[in-house]
Amino acid sequence: MVSVRSVVDRVGPTLLHALQLPEDCPAVGDVVIAEPGAPSGIAAGDLVLGVATAEPADAGALVRVSAGQGAAAVLLKPPLAAKPSVRRAAQKAGIALIQVHAATSWAQLVWLLRTVLDALADESESLEEGGDPGSGDLFRLADAVASVVDAPVTIEDTNSRVLAYSARQDLTDPARVATIMGRRIPDDVLARFRSRGVFRELSRGRQTIFVPAQRDGTLPRLIVPIRMGGELLGSMWAVVTGPVPEERAAAFADSAPVVALHLLRRRAHTDAQRRASAELLRGVLEGRAAPRRAVAELDLSDEPHRVVVIEVTGGDGRDAEGLRLALLERISQGVGRRPVATELGGLLYAVVPDRAGPGGWDELREALMTQSVSRRGGVPRAAAGTPETIAALATSRTQADEALGLLRAGLVEGRVVAYDEAWTALVLHRAATGAVAAHVAELGPLRVLREHDEAGKTGYVDTLYEWLRHPGDPRTAAEQLRIHPNTLRYRMKRLLDQVPLDLDDPDVRLALLTQLVALRWS
């Protein structure tokens, strides 16, 4: 069971401060962002984030509604959290009230809280199974290492992402706060450490690295690389007041092999889980997995979902795979939760709820619209199928693939499209595909016009297509061809001199248009 107190203690007083913490708080289950006017989204055990709450009256109402739904706590920023009316409402309702540091990003806090919840849940499972909590909980291990070096510690991977940090907050600076909040070292701080040769020293295998205080107020750091079998797995960073005594620094370095073993076990476990989840999702997309199992193991909600297929250009082999994974990381930032995703046939498939709120299709779409892949690559193309039940996601996947085909062929504008929005293009494309299979474009005099175009670039086929698309409106037809209306009329005259076409006959016009659609939309 994960308690509110354990969550607050794990995150630490730098970011969270408990103003009201009843003894009988429900166990924490998940983190939700309170939607204005939508209390139905709050469930028992939730940590409710009052992101859009601005007035004390609204905050009091959120507290009462959350308590009524059995939520574990309400989280608000100052000065709202400390308002007497809000605190009274929390006390009367018997719900925990947590104040969030004013500078904390709500999106980053969502990720941080969920990471902490996962860590605490893993720890509980380890204890229930009789395992070693020290080996099953990286946060607890960070606490142990902090006591060895007598300083706050972060454990980071080779990409400077924070995997865990100690509960101690007695010695801190803006760089440490930003690192914990953002779950990685900020780029500007990273650049300063890189300029001092820190990462070069890490790669060389130094046992400990001491970085003196910097002019911007960044406190000294004692850094230890985490290695196993010659492979650099990550590093430990301690915020210190100055040079560390030799025996304490040596004890800090001696803890690295223990952390390395944990990281290896963690990586193997994560890889196994990721492979199992990816295989299950592939089964869902191919219609061969049980819906109930998918809902339970992939943590999908019981509501309509869309399958979104994302194509990343600009790489090949491992490079292309890296671009796809990097894109998934970036589009997940600021979104309520990371989409359930897998790779299949060189494409990235994500399953998202069909809703406008956090983690839904609308938010993912907006993230995709604003993303480029990298300086080396192009921009992503993405297509979404229609909303379907979990049991029918294979249908949504097929639709997404078909819509992506329209984007690839340039038959629809933009680079993100939904299947249900592109119905006209789909109708024309399917009709054209059937017409091509029946060789309809080879019938009648159209073949003669195509031969003239191939021989002399006369543009007869394009001219006839726009003429038929805009009946009685030669000006618009000419604009589509980027020519003068008189040029359009001249071409039509020359065209009719080449082939006998009765354009006054509606059946002739319809037959020609069918042939031209087959050429344009197949």
Write up this protein:
- The protein has 522 residues and is α/β, with parallel strands linked by helices.
- It has helices at 4-11, 56-68, 84-93, 106-128, 133-136, 138-149, 174-182, 187-195, 198-204, 246-254, 256-285, 291-297, 318-332, 361-369, 393-408, 423-437, 446-456, 460-469, 474-481, 485-498, 506-521, and strands at residues 16-20, 30-33, 46-49, 73-76, 96-100, 153-157, 162-165, 209-211, 221-228, 231-239, 305-311, 340-344, 347-353, 381-384, 416-418.
- Strands 1-5-4-3-2 form a five-stranded mixed β-sheet, sandwiched between helices.
- Strand 14, helix 15 (393-408) and strand 15 form a beta-alpha-beta unit.
- The radius of gyration is 30 Å and the shape is elongated.
- Mean pLDDT is 81; it is low at 127-136 and 373-377.
Question: Can you give keywords for this protein?
Answer:
522 residues, alpha/beta, 5-stranded antiparallel sheet, 21 helices, 15 strands, elongated
Question: Can you give me a brief rundown of this structure?
Answer:
With 522 residues, the protein is of the alpha/beta class. The protein is 49% helix and 15% strand.
Helix content: 40-55%
Pairing-aware structural class of the strands and helices? alpha/beta
- Tell me the total number of β-strands: 15
What's the arrangement of strands in the largest beta sheet? 1-5-4-3-2
Put simply, the count of helices is: 21
- N- to C-terminal distance: 58 Å
Oligomeric form:
single chain
Name the shape in a single word: elongated
The proportion of residues in beta strands is 5-15%
User: How large is the radius of gyration?
Assistant: 30 Å
Uncertain runs: 127-136, 373-377
Mind summarizing the main beta sheet? 5 strands, mixed
Report the average pLDDT across residues. Answer: 81
